[in-house]
Amino acid sequence: MHLGGTPTGFDYYDILPGQGRYYNPTFINQEGEYEMEGYTTEIITDKTINWLEGEKDSDQPFMVMMWHKAPHRAWEPGPNELGMYENTTFPEPETLFDDYDTRDAAAQNNMTIANTMFIDRDLKMTDQPRAGFTDEQQEQWDAIYQPIYEKFKEDNPTGKELVSFKYQRYMRDYLACISAVDKSVGELLDYLKEAGLDKNTIVIYSSDQGFYLGEHGWFDKRWMYKESLNTPLLVSWPGVIEVGSVNNDLVSNLDFAETLIDVAGAEIPEEMQGRSLLPILKGETPADWRKAHYYHYYEHPSEHAVMRHYGITTDKYKLIHFYYDMDDWELYDLEKDRMEMHNIYDDPAYADVQEQLHVQLEELREKYGDNDDLNQKFIDEYKEKVKANPRIEYWKFW
Fold this sequence. Notes:
By secondary structure, the protein is of the alpha+beta class. The chain contains 10 helices and 9 strands.
């Protein structure tokens, strides 16, 4: 679950501690911790289907969340996906060698493929065995990675050639992990059909954030730039959602809980900050639906050195404020600058747009109860925690 502690409010749970391992994972359920041999994506899929098998004949509605470990770092493909992309060369993103000109906060990052992605841990260029593997798993692994490692040592790439090499290795491993997730979703959908549950089951596919696949030279997420701000959201609801339909309204993960409450016919608590997506799913977008989306990232100092920032995005523009140890504003024209490379804040040609976005931003900050005093309170509390314990792990504090 990756939130600390164990889930509350569930009849049943079976989760990984933290992010868990790709191979031979530990699980935690109501009875405690235990280990299983195998590949985590496949195990989670089997667990989900087994749970559904026990519920399919019940006259009660059910809700199950199948949360995968993949594709968290360090991207270890499963035994059925090892080597599947070794003969594929992926096109490099336009911004792989971004120099972050006009974007000071982005330049302070610690998440580049060039400098932050480890050759041994992340890209497996090592002759050290993988932790926790069985002998058979290690043998399968070495059959793929050892020849690649030997050639890497022979070629000894440097500079941009090394970055390009790392990018290809990253993509091959990452997408192989994703392939196992794709298969998992397919197996689950097939099961629903075979069990006769497909006609009256809502299926929602989403993620916590988008992920950088080399854009701006990065991996990971966290930023308000589009690759991590945009999140996959696919919904199947037979008889309600038109098959193949696409909606471009601005929605948020804040809306998910309200939507499920609404679908269940229960009352949505007033203090919840999102809105039910039910009208949108039915093709009936309300006239007062949001025109701007608010975002706030708090975790700095922390992993990857992404500076604290908040901002709004509309269908045409994005305004961001980096406020911790700096006071930088960024503005992007999303129609003319789709890669968000050119900060046009204070450009006279966008003076009216900039003013309007500032008004919208303050309206949303007030709506969500987010303000500078609250931010400073969090920062001060964090600094006091660090004084008391310099070794504190920031994410645990949050």
